[in-house]
Request: fold
Amino acid sequence: MKLRLGMIGGGQGAFIGSVHRIAARMDDEYELVCGAFSSNAEKAKASGLLLGLSPDRVYASYQELLEKEKQLPEDVRVQVISIVTPNHLHFGPAKLALESGFHVILDKPMTFSLAEAKELEKVVKTSGKRFCLTHTYTGYPMVKEARQVVSEGKLGKIRKVYVEYPQGWLSTFLEGENNKQASWRTDPTKSGIAGAMGDIGTHAFNLAEYVSGLQVIKLCADINTVVEGRRLDDDGAALLKFNNGASGVLIASQVAAGDENNIKVRVYGEKGGLEWQQDNANTLLLKWLDKPAEILRTGAGYLSSYATHNARVPAGHPEGYLEAFANLYRNFALSIKADIAGKPAEKEWLDYPGIEDGIRGMAFVENVIASGKSDAKWTDFKI
Amino acid sequence: MKLRLGMIGGGQGAFIGSVHRIAARMDDEYELVCGAFSSNAEKAKASGLLLGLSPDRVYASYQELLEKEKQLPEDVRVQVISIVTPNHLHFGPAKLALESGFHVILDKPMTFSLAEAKELEKVVKTSGKRFCLTHTYTGYPMVKEARQVVSEGKLGKIRKVYVEYPQGWLSTFLEGENNKQASWRTDPTKSGIAGAMGDIGTHAFNLAEYVSGLQVIKLCADINTVVEGRRLDDDGAALLKFNNGASGVLIASQVAAGDENNIKVRVYGEKGGLEWQQDNANTLLLKWLDKPAEILRTGAGYLSSYATHNARVPAGHPEGYLEAFANLYRNFALSIKADIAGKPAEKEWLDYPGIEDGIRGMAFVENVIASGKSDAKWTDFKI
Amino acid sequence: MKLRLGMIGGGQGAFIGSVHRIAARMDDEYELVCGAFSSNAEKAKASGLLLGLSPDRVYASYQELLEKEKQLPEDVRVQVISIVTPNHLHFGPAKLALESGFHVILDKPMTFSLAEAKELEKVVKTSGKRFCLTHTYTGYPMVKEARQVVSEGKLGKIRKVYVEYPQGWLSTFLEGENNKQASWRTDPTKSGIAGAMGDIGTHAFNLAEYVSGLQVIKLCADINTVVEGRRLDDDGAALLKFNNGASGVLIASQVAAGDENNIKVRVYGEKGGLEWQQDNANTLLLKWLDKPAEILRTGAGYLSSYATHNARVPAGHPEGYLEAFANLYRNFALSIKADIAGKPAEKEWLDYPGIEDGIRGMAFVENVIASGKSDAKWTDFKI
Amino acid sequence: MKLRLGMIGGGQGAFIGSVHRIAARMDDEYELVCGAFSSNAEKAKASGLLLGLSPDRVYASYQELLEKEKQLPEDVRVQVISIVTPNHLHFGPAKLALESGFHVILDKPMTFSLAEAKELEKVVKTSGKRFCLTHTYTGYPMVKEARQVVSEGKLGKIRKVYVEYPQGWLSTFLEGENNKQASWRTDPTKSGIAGAMGDIGTHAFNLAEYVSGLQVIKLCADINTVVEGRRLDDDGAALLKFNNGASGVLIASQVAAGDENNIKVRVYGEKGGLEWQQDNANTLLLKWLDKPAEILRTGAGYLSSYATHNARVPAGHPEGYLEAFANLYRNFALSIKADIAGKPAEKEWLDYPGIEDGIRGMAFVENVIASGKSDAKWTDFKI
Reply:
């Protein structure tokens, strides 16, 4: 039985919409049944056609979609709504979808503002529906293994967390060259108060907290707009303090010319350290004080149930970004299906990012931008 | 419009069947409509059910599948048959499927013997149907780029080709431990005359010829059965001579203890060399006589149309084994759809492995095993 | 003609003394003729004997060494004094050596305090003698190449500098276990006001300024003492602002458990970025906005005169830490010999770290520690 | 006490002569006291002067050197002769030096022919002098560790050995461009019957036998002269059989365009495999069947006495080619000094390549070239 999926946003030419659809298809847990792909009606229709949807389930707006689908018979109507619009169009559809009785998968950063995020949290709780926020990187098997290594205490008490996300694609004034991705991501009316910090800083922040199992309680940020004419930050770094006393550094830049997308996290404890980076995604490096470093690999027999559950092929067949993304979709589906079946979901299935990650992510955005503007050094991480 | 796909073999628990299905789903070009998943009728039914197929299109045998589907209305019946059985069950279904008017995707090695391969070649030609052999590694974007670099003469005349495929998973007598994969792959009644040479040697051979654009004309092989009690080769190496005068070395082993699946090819010409390996699949290294080596990356803007067409996400989002596999399925579908639409297929679409690769692969198996047994040094590569 | 070298500090069992001696011997530019190896007279004698020195030139104190050597005939007496004592014993010997008419090679950090550093600067200027501070990492051929790449404008205007020096060797309370290295390096009476920041932070700072050609003008630091009972910082990070408007991050830690010594620098400009790390010391990675990244290698024909001059063997024969150290000694010797010969020194020879690096390094120590204690965010980099 | 060293060959501009001298100086175990650096008398004198030798100990020929030095007082005359001439000038000086009562360090390949090698073996035995052949790669700490890992049985019985030495520097007809190195190395009157096989094939062969602890008993070779006009082989590969039943592959090429000097060895046993390559010389990778691969590093505390003895700096300070070379010189010196002191040499000191390695190396040259010319497949490895 596949879950019936609807999509809001993600029309032709959209990068992340296509990624969501591949992720949804990968493990055959979903069937795309409807969509409101664009505010441009013609483009919306064309996208739906291309995706093989029944024309009567390609809608002109998310409101129409949710309204009409609600009225369809229970075994026909959509069950999960995937929202892949720019940030300023996250909250409205998500709220309405939840209130309409649908589970929601939402792209990050969760909302336009922290206030919206908190509001959405209430809606999620009230709705009783499941909610998934696509912090992709936590879907990698070896990121899950990393979290296990830490949570089992193998590294001892955690002392340091370094996380970095260097990109170079915004090194020039791309938003002036009719680049759609660059345009909305650097537009404060669409992205919110943050550029790089919202787009990739939130990923880095989420990865750091996910792997370390810790929470940031203070930060001190340097936020920069490097490219002339740009309206939002395209670069930044923050010193971090965690709730167990550990300290850390977060780096995120979109003007690291020549860099691609190599998000990387390092966590050190009393007994050893770990290192994972997307460019070598199937490897988790464990380093020790007094014995050889170890290379853990996706698909190997010695991994935790979390890493094993989130891999599809034997060791040595690289799994990538799309598989990591698909893991979010799969775990979300497995959890919903368990609900439907009236069974408890396995703990590995429930390990997908949710509303709490979104709240913390939006708090990160607001706190880090505020710190960037502040003359004070350490500022409390407020939610 | 999705192509209607049927599958022969690949019941529950099969590794490669699942991979084929993910590959077929990835780009939404296929819809699985029927299957004959197992010779065990109950298992076949269960597999079909799990895959959400209509029970009346889950068949007890491939003969039944092909017979019954043929009789369905044209717009309902299956269009493409994917065959994922062990080697000894390749030829029969493939022949019948083609003769029944269906396009065929077949797992490698193509057949049980070269004689069967030649017979199948005739059937393909007579049938007028498209045929794809799943030599996965040629589906990687950077392997396609490698082939372009060579074919455009950037390296000058090719002089050396090194290809290696070291695995360690058969380092112990796994076939004695009720391991299904190990059992059939080491069984001469199911795999044919070769073990490692058929299973992974053919991949290495195919990759070497694909990237270099050359053909092996002579070889000299050392073929070993290392693990006691094993009935087929689990290790080997061959010295190679190519049709342009270049020489090479092919290594394939399943007793390289601790190795995973790191197939690697290096090609050297008068002006430079290239290097690609699956463990770093999104990188193609170009090395030059008198300037810095260059790192080409999947998704980058400077790549050839072949590499670009076969990637889904921007540079820095790793694409892996499943994406490479899916590229075969996608290109095959795009070519078939072009046929249906009465349009010429793009050259990038037609770049999928076919019957000729299968003929050469089976000839490799027979020649390399024969050379391994021979006291003569160089033996001509005979087809 | 070899320069006559004397050593202060570096008796038996000292790590860095031995490194200095190997560096001095490597290129045959020096002959060790005298030493005051230890404040322990017996140990000093034993060390001198082991090193094959004439007993009458093994002295009980640096004062004695400088006094007696000064009285030897010009063609016999020492010419260059190498000082490899702990930090608190840098200034005295260096000052006296310069005032005694000898050239000085001094280990880093330059002095116990910035005040001493400024005082030493005056002595150097008055003395007219050459002075070298052993910031080893700037001796690597590919670090020199990196500096050239930046200074020639290949990366465009520099925007970001990341430098990191993660070590793990002080993850435990080693100074409580009779470890000589750990003891003095964590002792404020010997190291000065900084632990990690003085020992490795100064290296990171120097490398960042050397490669980027920029100067830090503001910083904001988080300085930590992680291991209980330790008397100095063992960890820290700083946000940086440079004199051209670029920003940066500096990381230095001695509690990055499992890490060795992998100092790494990344510099990004408008057109591209570069990356160098000690663990892959013979490679300089250049990354570009719109073309493949390039791998530059020690010993290759396409390098600048600076990189070429500082390598000894053809490409592919790895040169390491000792060779980098030796480059400092060699360039210092070549410069002195040019003076002696009354010829101008080549620009490549003059490229060794000197008093100015020491002043800035000690200013870094004082500024970074002050910032760590301050509640203010950005503090001006004061000298 | 330093050993008094004399050098035959290695005048100005010679690559390997300079390497030997750095190696000899590195650990202060030798003092260069005399030399016959060139058959060109003027060049010989100039070289001696540059090296700071007393003019009366710079000789016009090796015969003169040995004759005259023999007559000097015992505590003045040379003790160790280092021979760094082209291959055809190895045997004569080595024989005479040994017969004159001096220890000998000889560059590889040992002699011009196997016959000479056998003759030299007799001379060594008769002379009672120590003899070292500079197979540099066995001087790397992690190569020594690799040998220990195998010899202690950690990998179980050895099954496979892959060794490769790909270089690209002879990809063009460099010997036609007045390149001194290329000229003699491709000249059969100077190099002997082999080009690439003698120059680098012997290194690969030696490394394979050293690490595996096995001996080749059969081989089957493909030997090529790729560049037009070249008089000796510049490329080749060989299938190998070892004395314990293991098989292997050896690759050596000087036309692998763009490659530097990345000699690499992989050894697999029943339980695991190991991998070492010069380009990452301070890492030894151990791979296991059922647990994570391990990264062993030069200088770490967990290494064997062999690896520890042959390193100079703590982990993370890379040691390179010159240090590996120096390890040969150092161990040779320590062994000789033990003899002089009438004490047994430590087993770690005695682990330097000697006459037996030379015999096997020259046998490799003759066997591999013969096999390359033969139509027979396997040929016995004859000495």
